[in-house]
Amino acid sequence: MDESTLMSIVNSPVNLLGVTLCLALLGASIYVLRGWMRSSQNDEQEDQKRKRLPKMKKRDFYVKELIPYNGQEDERILIAVNSKVFDVSNRGRDFYGPGGPYHCFAGKDASRGLATMSLEPSSIKDEYDDLSDLNSSERDQLREWENQMKEKYEFVGRLLRPDESPKEYSDTEESSGVQE
Ligand code: HEM
Question: Which residue's CA is the nearest one to ligand 1's atom 24?
Answer without folding.
Answer: 117
